[in-house]
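Dear Dr. H.,

I hope your travels went smoothly. While you were away I took the liberty of generating a structure for the chain from your last submission, since the lab meeting agenda had it listed for discussion. I wanted you to have the full record in hand beforehand rather than looking at slides cold. The sequence, exactly as received, is reproduced here:
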Amino acid sequence: MPALEKELRKAILSLPAARKDKLLLQLLTPNQLLQEQLAFELLEGPEGLETRREALQHQITTVAQGFYYNASELLIGLRQVCPVISNHVKVTHDAYGEVSLLLLLLNQVLSHQKELLHTLTGANEALGLFLAKRTEEALQKLDRLHEDLHVEFAQQMSNLLPKLHASAAGYSARKLGLPLNWQEE
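The corresponding predicted structure, in token form, is as follows:
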């Protein structure tokens, strides 16, 4: 995003407060993400973060534990919940919550949808690739977090990786070079 010119910046700052307020509201109206960020920051604050996480955890659990006739239906459900997690991160800047929610999603799916991921077939290959890529994403995001937080996710990651490799997603996981076990460094 380009910076404002110094003259324009001075002119905007010298505007009357009422005019600034009107311009601010006009700029906010078309930008839904900015509206959500301001609502979170100004109305909910840090106290609302845990409430948002709990709501997302419930939504993830519902999707992961649902009944699906085939792998394609499950994949559609997962593809609908991942953007919700991404939006949560854009609004709240919650990197810890992103890793936590992503690991919850992956562990829940691998625990509750075993029959759809038992063996690799053409029907569940896309689902396996999706799960492997989300695991790779979780590992990358976990590496970006402070080292002290790695301990909090060690158990979840240690449960996830062997299950992933033992499922239909194992082929994709090996292609992506995902480790069989996770050790914090």
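Two observations you may find useful: The first helix runs from residue 6 to 13. The chain has a mean pLDDT of 89.

With kind regards,
E. W.
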